[in-house]
Amino acid sequence: MLSQQNCVDLHVHTTASDGSLTPTEVVRLALAQGLRAIALTDHDSVAGVAEAQAAARGTDLEVIPGVEISSDWPVGDFHILGLYIEPRNGPLGERLAAMRAARVGRARKMLERLTALGMPLEWEEVLPSVNGCAIGRLHIARAMLRRGYIRSLQEAFQYIGRYGPAYVPRLRITPVEAIGLIRQAGGVAVLAHPTASGVAEHIPTLASLGLQGIEVFYPEHSFENIKALLRLARQYRLLVTGGSDFHGFEPGMGAPLGSCGVPARRLPFLRQAAMAGRSSEWACLPL
């Protein structure tokens, strides 16, 4: 097992999306565990990056500005991580703002459907204040659990999961657009949890379209999954990353912070890819 003192966790969520800890609390936890670096990759939001970087200032912890963009093709859902992005990038910021606004409308429609199913929820129970954060289904699941409608967060997805009766599709954005936005913002585009999401077979296509890395090390990836992904990374010259997909301490909500990641020696390769991208044709690619 990788020592946390030499570990970087490149997939971390905060209250800027559906995590249960604030950016400052996540930084304190990372410091307590001796992590070398964390990437804040909130869903469709960079609202927590500045707070986390301020909390880490003067410490040995590097906070990597990042984002997780939800995208899809007819063949499946693709979550694209952007690492070392410029958080104030205009095109990225505008698109993320539109996606967050669409998340609000989607959540309200889900509440209407839950009400019709006999599980009414008030908006204030789900998210009292948006303030630049991205509302997600996990916010609704937590409200359902507090009301006693369900016995676990996982049970909520029987209703609000992709094939559930209260599910509402999200704003559609393709993986190609997500990759372009990330690279325009000077970041490195990485496919998150490809095997866990069931989209690993599409890595060759995405690599030809500008994908730069794949999240090989992930809590739900088996040893065989990891070996297969490493082969793909070598074949298509993709960067290898890893992360816990940390969301907090709630039961059943994934792995602890720092429990899955990559050695700190991999960071220079990510930085180099980001710097190379800033001087490439992606810097002025129209969307």
Q: What labels describe this entry?
A:
alpha/beta; DNA polymerase, domain 1; TIM Barrel; 10 helices; 287 residues; eight-stranded mixed sheet; globular; disordered C terminus; 8 strands; 16% strand
Strand order, main sheet: write it out: 7-6-5-4-3-2-1-8
Radius of gyration (CA) equals 18 Å
Class of secondary structure makeup: alpha/beta
- How confident overall, as mean pLDDT? 91
Give the tally of β-strands.
8
Largest sheet: 8 strands, mixed
Instruction: Tell me the strand percentage band.
Output: 15-25%
Report on this model:
An eight-stranded mixed beta sheet has the order 7-6-5-4-3-2-1-8. The protein has helices at residues 23-32, 49-56, 90-116, 123-126, 137-147, 153-160, 175-184, 203-208, 223-235, 267-278; strands at 7-12, 37-40, 62-73, 76-83, 188-191, 213-217, 239-242, 262-263. It is globular, with a radius of gyration of 18 Å. With 287 residues, it is α/β, with parallel strands linked by helices. The relative contact order is 0.17. It has two domains: 4-96 and 171-284, Alpha-Beta Barrel (TIM Barrel), CATH 3.20.20; 102-160, DNA polymerase, domain 1 (Orthogonal Bundle), CATH 1.10.150.
Write the topology of this structure.
Blueprint (H helix, E strand, L loop, with lengths): L6 E6 L10 H10 L4 E4 L8 H8 L5 E12 L2 E8 L6 H27 L6 H4 L10 H11 L5 H8 L14 H10 L3 E4 L11 H6 L4 E5 L5 H13 L3 E4 L19 E2 L3 H12 L9
Parallel strand pairs: 1-2, 2-3, 5-6, 6-7
Antiparallel strand pairs: 1-8, 3-4, 4-5
